[in-house]
Design brief:
Blueprint: H1 9-12, E1 35-38, E2 44-47, E3 53-57, E4 64-69, E5 72-77, H2 81-85, H3 96-102, E6 111-116, E7 125-127, H4 131-136, H5 138-141, E8 148-150, E9 153-156, H6 161-164, H7 167-172, E10 181-186, E11 200-205, H8 217-226, E12 240-245, E13 252-253, H9 254-268, E14 272-275, E15 277-278, H10 287-299, E16 302-306, E17 326-331, E18 356-359, E19 363-366, E20 376-378, E21 381-384, H11 387-404, H12 410-419, H13 428-431, H14 438-443, E22 446-448, E23 452-458, E24 466-474, E25 480-486, E26 492-493, E27 497-500, E28 504-512, E29 519-529, E30 532-542, E31 546-554, E32 565-570, E33 576-580, E34 586-592, E35 595-605, E36 614-625, E37 630-635, E38 640-646, E39 652-661, E40 671-677, E41 682-688, E42 695-703, E43 707-709, E44 717-718, E45 728-735, E46 744-749, H15 755-764, E47 769-773, E48 788-791, H16 797-801, E49 806-811, E50 817-826, E51 834-837, E52 843-849, E53 856-866, E54 869-870, E55 877-883, E56 885-891, E57 897-905, E58 919-923, E59 934-939, E60 945-947, E61 961-965, E62 968-972, E63 974-977, E64 981-983, ...
Parallel strand pairs: 10-12, 10-14, 11-12, 14-16, 16-17, 17-18, 23-30, 31-37, 36-41, 38-51, 45-46, 46-47, 47-48, 50-56, 52-59, 72-79
Antiparallel strand pairs: 1-2, 2-3, 4-5, 4-40, 6-7, 6-8, 9-13, 9-15, 19-21, 20-21, 22-24, 24-28, 25-27, 25-29, 26-28, 29-30, 31-34, 32-33, 32-35, 35-36, 38-41, 39-40, 39-42, 42-50, 43-49, 44-48, 45-49, 52-56, 53-54, 53-55, 53-57, 57-58, 58-64, 60-63, 61-62, 61-70, 62-67, 65-66, 65-68, 68-69, ...
Helix pairs in contact: 8-11, 9-10
């Protein structure tokens, strides 16, 4: 039985932190390109250059909740909500922001890495190609008793500092860490560095790249702990180091970190472990934090952890959030908190974190050979900043203190280091107890049993006081009277003094009365006497007034919905709170006093078990205030239909998407979205006051189905990896899988074996094709053995009832007519509305899809735009066109609506984006048309050549072309482009960009689409050369391209440089071919790139080759007779303008010759 569970995201995200960059890095690639992320469910989220979702390729019938919490964007399928809310599944599997930061998008990994869960999975990962199938079977595979975590990636949390922490005083007392082993788990170390050669006793690599430090971080950290040097001593210069490599160039896998922790404390026996790395904010229940607490309890080792470098944007990171971890903040040399040091309190329960502070700004320590060139002080030393640098000061201090008190436990070491800290002018949620003072820690005999008192979260309503106790211990021979003071305010009370007997203890109770006021309270309790100062950090969060939002949700059949939920979006802050429903449709959450948008989607499932196709969908929008407890009943039976009606009887509604969004946070989305299959009816239900912030959007794709049954009106779709029927009519007998399937169209329920196993089994038995009812998932990569189609089970009732009779399968390669319809509403839910669509009100486009090689499928994606931007959160429309093809397309137009297209040449969307032989063409900018307008579009026309317009809407968020930026020249170009489209994925082909100045090479980019070079301020003559090649059956034209641009540039200028671009007008057929043996009229032109002003072309020459560039003939207005059928024509153009700018461009195999 599922239990109703409050899912206020502030609490739920707690404990689900994942290691991320200590200082924020771009969540997309360095060039800002669009990326696709396959979730563990098999659904694919498409994000733009800002990391914002622009669409979701979902499994059939999948619905999605999107919301923002603490600057992270989440996209969670509705059928995963219960596993997430019941703590069986890590929420990070659906944290789009974190997944991009980890490098888990599809261009960089083909697996979803896992931790725990009790599943027998090869290599602890789910292949993305199998994710939908794995998710569909999770009921039988079970998520297990243990929670299943994403194996995220931590990133590194980047001579006066040693005296600053009191180390010389400890050394003078005879304590330098001798006899103590400190483990440093980091990027390895420089094995030949003179300051570490005698310090490292043992090492091991857990990354597979070797112990030698090729990053520099680990060497710097290790030397700060225990480096041996006349000038740059480590804090524990007598300690021994155990170095474990757990981080590589692409981050620190959590599995490697945990393995390193186990090795350090169990095999090596380290007393102290330094972790200068971290993940996202956490409540201490993440895998790394749990490992710290467990290993501390089992071995007594103290884990010293960097607090993180997120400043006030994020809380203390994992595993610094662990109860037992000693979390370290970063101070400047002047003793102030560094602005990048992560703040506390701990996420979720508001416990005191960080625990202590140490210098971490501009720290000079050992430099690994060949690393950190920008931070180098000399060949052997580098200057770095971060909590990574602060933590090893404390780890070294812990080793010194452990030498002084070898029997002390980790808790005693931690408490003493915290208690003896020097005061810092900041609060305990920023610096803990203050600045590390190891000299006092070694010498002082009065101590506390804990370093902090965390009252944590005191939930509203407040009816009684709360108490915490600190116990003081006097290890000296004389009694001590401690004077007690605090800076916590009148809500806290404590006695004024306490007597602590010699070699005895005395408890002190701190009382908090939350009835005096709410808010956060952080400060210190100080116990002082002559020569004694014991500091304890204190913190509390007295929760503000909250009230319950209680919901009862009823489906259209009168029962509870499946996978029911509500999303409450705070209209003041934009934060989303998710409320899941129990099996009876009830859910409750306590929310801060505010106004909330309440959103829901009530799906009425079919009777088919397992994965289901909804037979209706009800969208719910309301507004509530939580000034007091509020209850709502959402009854889908009271909803009104939202209908789309076309005046073209030849087409069917193939896809429909609906979004309910409240876009309050720039670049992020909160709401509900998902597809509606076929003709599933959609209803709307609203309640409460108007919601002017609401965006409700409907997106519809209608066309003649590519495959249909003449006798039954069931909507059929090909599976992603399915072969196609030959165009025409096919007469087939229907059968069930357990009958005689010879030559039959097999109709199977989608609740058993995988579609791929079923297809292979049916092919072996002689079947012609398979129809799967209520498919459980839609994997994209694998090829099925024969045509496999999906159908909604409720639509196929008549077909199932007539199994055994013959049917006529009617198939086309490309739908002759298609509709792309977009209906945006703002501030209202269109319940009861019918969108009556007339061709006359739409923009009509005569579209031509040319082929550049072998005929084959072209995957088409169409995104709606408003006012020049892709509509955030709106799903995309997918379709397959078999090129070459021509057809008529209709689009919604007017009211700022535009359309942005992508066409995948040579592959389907969702296949391996890293394949170097395929690519995707995209618009330079949205196409905006007028209602009733008539237009033409020509996709993939030759000649495809390098262009200076690498500015497609999704890919280049910051613009493109070749520009001067101060003393640098930047290039963002496309090696393969046409007048209207650019190959935006740029995975096609290989090549480079090379820049020369006055004949001297400044460098090569190593790729043909982007480069940046530092250049002198003085005027110089430059040559930028692009070269690229590609080969694939579907893209055999423009097999090799090269362009050299010549121009002059001077420093002190900014903007587009005066490079010349070549245009080609060549009359070719739909296969990009011309008749061999006949002259061909052509036109070549040149102009400057956009933004560089107009050019007066002085000289333009053109040449053609019929032997792949071995010989050339001049061309004016006609390409002469030459070549043979099946051959190719290559082109070369040179041009210059009156200011001396030049271009020389060659395109091999620009077009084909036919008989």
């Amino acid at each position: 039985m599922r239990r109703a569970r409050m899912a206020v995201v502030a609490a739920l995200v707690a404990g689900l932190s994942s290691p991320v960059a200590a200082q924020a890095e771009p969540v997309t690639g360095p060039d800002g390109e669009v990326r696709t992320i396959t979730l563990i469910t098999g659904d694919k989220v498409v994000v733009d250059g800002r990391g914002s979702p622009v669409g979701v390729d979902g499994r059939p019938g999948a619905q999605f909740v999107q919301y923002v919490r603490d600057e992270h964007q989440y996209v969670i399928p509705a059928d995963a909500l219960d596993d997430v809310e019941q703590d069986r599944l890590d929420r990070r599997f659906f944290d789009v922001t974190a997944l991009l930061e980890f490098g888990y998008d599809d261009a960089r990994t083909d697996r979803v890495p896992l931790l725990g869960g009790g599943l027998a999975l090869a290599e602890n990962a789910v292949p993305k190609a199998e994710a939908a199938r794995w998710w569909a079977r999770r009921g039988t595979a079970t998520l297990g008793a243990q929670k299943l975590w994403l194996d995220g990636k931590a990133k590194l949390a980047l001579a006066e500092s040693v005296p600053m922490v009191g180390a010389p005083a400890a050394w003078q007392a005879g304590y330098d860490g001798t006899g103590v082993t400190v483990a440093v788990l980091d990027t390895g170390y420089d094995q030949e560095h003179p300051e570490l050669k005698d310090a490292v006793a043992v090492s091991r690599d857990f990354t597979g790249v070797g112990i030698q430090d090729d990053i520099g971080h680990g060497t710097h950290v290790a030397a700060t702990v225990a480096g041996r040097s006349d000038r740059y001593h480590g804090v524990a210069k007598g300690a021994k180091l155990a170095v474990g490599r757990v981080c590589a160039q692409d981050g620190c896998p959590e599995s490697a970190i945990i393995a390193g922790m186990e090795w350090a404390v169990r095999e090596v026996g380290a007393k102290v472990v330094n972790l200068s790395l971290g993940g996202d904010q956490s409540d201490g229940t993440d895998p790394l934090s749990q490992a710290v607490d467990r290993l501390t309890a089992e071995t007594g080792a103290l884990f010293v952890v960097a607090a993180g470098n997120a400043g006030d944007r994020r809380r203390v990171s994992a595993p610094a959030a662990a109860d037992e971890a000693l979390a370290v903040a970063n101070l400047t040399k002047q003793g102030a908190l560094n602005e990048w040091s992560s703040h506390g309190p701990r996420f979720g329960d508001h416990a005191v974190k960080p625990d202590l502070a140490a210098p971490g700004t501009d720290i000079v320590a050992a430099r690994a050979k060949g690393t950190l060139p920008g931070e180098a002080v000399d060949d052997l030393h580098a200057r770095l900043t971060g909590t990574s640098m602060a933590a090893p000061h404390v780890a070294g201090a812990a080793a010194v203190l452990a030498q002084r008190h070898p029997s002390w436990t980790a808790r005693e070491l931690k408490a003493q280091l915290m208690a003896t800290a020097k005061p810092v002018a900041d609060t305990s949620d920023h610096v803990g107890t203050g600045l590390l003072d190891v000299g006092r820690a070694v010498a002082q005999q009065v101590r506390a049993d804990v370093g902090s008192l965390s009252f944590g979260l005191l939930e509203w309503p407040h009816t009684k006081t709360a108490e915490k106790t600190v116990t003081y211990r006097n290890d000296g021979d004389q009694p001590v009277t401690l004077t007690l003071t605090h800076d916590l305010g009148q809500d806290f009370t404590v006695q004024s003094t306490v007597d602590v007997p010699a070699h005895g203890t005395a408890p002190v109770v701190v009382t908090l009365d939350p009835r005096k006021g709410d808010g956060t309270f952080f400060g210190t309790l100080k116990a002082t006497a002559d020569g004694v100062a014991v500091t304890t950090a204190v913190g509390a969060y007295v929760q503000e007034e909250r009230h319950a939002l209680t919901a009862k949700v009823i489906g259209r059949d009168g029962g509870a919905p499946r996978d029911g939920f509500l999303l409450a979006v705070d209209l003041k802050t934009g934060q989303g709170s998710l409320i899941t429903l129990d099996a009876d449709g009830n859910g409750t959450a306590k929310l801060p006093v505010s106004d909330y948008a309440v959103l829901s989607r009530i799906n009425q499932p079919s009777a088919l078990p397992g994965w289901y196709t909804p037979v209706s969908m009800t969208d719910v929008v309301g507004r509530v205030s939580t000034a007091q407890d509020v209850s709502v009943t959402l009854d889908a039976r009271e909803a009104k239909p939202i209908t789309v009606a076309l005046d073209d009887p030849a087409v069917r509604q193939l896809h429909r998407y609906a979004d309910i969004l409240v876009p309050l946070t720039p670049g992020k989305v909160s709401g509900v979205s998902g597809p509606v299959q076929g003709s599933v009816p959609v209803y709307g239900l609203s309640f409460g006051d108007p919601l002017p912030q609401l965006d409700y959007r409907t997106l519809v794709k209608a066309a003649q189905p590519r495959v249909s049954l003449a006798e039954f009106p069931v909507l059929l779709r090909y599976f992603g990896g399915s072969p196609y029927f030959t165009p025409g009519k096919h007469r087939l007998r229907t059968a069930r899988p357990d009958g005689d399937v010879t030559g039959a169209l097999v109709v199977a329920d989608g609740t058993g074996e995988s579609e791929y196993e079923l297809a292979q089994r049916m092919k072996d038995a002689g079947a012609a094709a398979v129809v799967v009812l209520g498919p459980q998932g839609l994997p994209w990569n694998d090829q099925t053995a024969l045509p496999v189609l999906s159908a909604a089970d409720y639509e196929a009732a008549d077909l199932v009832a007539h199994i055994g009779r013959e049917v006529t399968v009617e198939a086309v390669d490309t739908a002759p007519v298609s509709y792309h319809l977009f209906f945006p509403e703002h501030g209202t839910l269109p319940a009861g509305k019918t969108y009556a669509v007339r061709k006359a009100d739409l923009a009509e486009v005569k579209a031509q899809y040319r082929s550049s090689g072998a005929d084959g499928a072209v995957g088409q994606r169409v995104y709606p735009t408003r006012d020049g931007r892709i509509v955030a959160g709106m799903p995309i429309l997918d379709e397959v066109v078999v090129a070459p093809a021509a057809r008529t397309e209709y689009y919604s137009a007017g009211d700022g609506i535009g359309w942005y297209h992508e066409e995948s040449v040579g592959r389907m969307f969702g296949t391996d984006a890293r394949d170097p032989n395929v690519g995707t063409w995209s618009d330079y900018e949205p196409v905006v048309m007028q209602p009733g307008g008539r237009y033409r579009r020509d996709w993939n026309p030759a000649v495809t050549a390098p262009r200076l317009r690498g500015t497609s809407l999704v890919q280049w968020a910051a613009g493109g072309g070749v520009t001067r930026v101060g003393d640098a020249i930047e290039a963002k170009v496309s090696p393969f482009a046409t007048r209207s489209a650019v190959e935006s994925w740029r995975r096609t082909g290989v090549g480079a960009l090379e820049l020369k100045r006055d004949g001297v090479t400044l460098g090569s980019s190593g790729n043909p689409w982007q480069g940046r070079w530092s250049v002198p301020a003085e005027q110089g003559r430059y040559e930028l050369t692009l070269s690229a090649g590609r080969s694939a059956p579907q893209v055999e034209l423009s097999s090799n391209v090269s362009t050299t641009w010549g121009f002059t540039s001077t420093g002190g200028t900014a903007g587009a440089l005066p490079l010349l671009e070549v245009d080609y007008t060549v009359p070719l057929d739909i296969r990009n071919s011309a008749k061999a043996g006949l002259p061909l009229p052509v036109r070549f032109t040149a102009q400057r790139q956009a933004g560089a002003g107009k050019a007066k072309i002085r000289d333009l020459k053109a040449f053609a080759s019929f032997d792949d560039g071995a010989t050339w003939v001049p061309v004016r207005t006609l390409i002469p007779r030459g070549g043979k059928p099946g051959g190719y024509v290559s082109l070369r153009v040179t041009a210059s303008d009156t200011e001396g700018n030049t271009v020389d461009q060659t395109v091999l195999r620009a077009y084909r010759l036919r008989a």
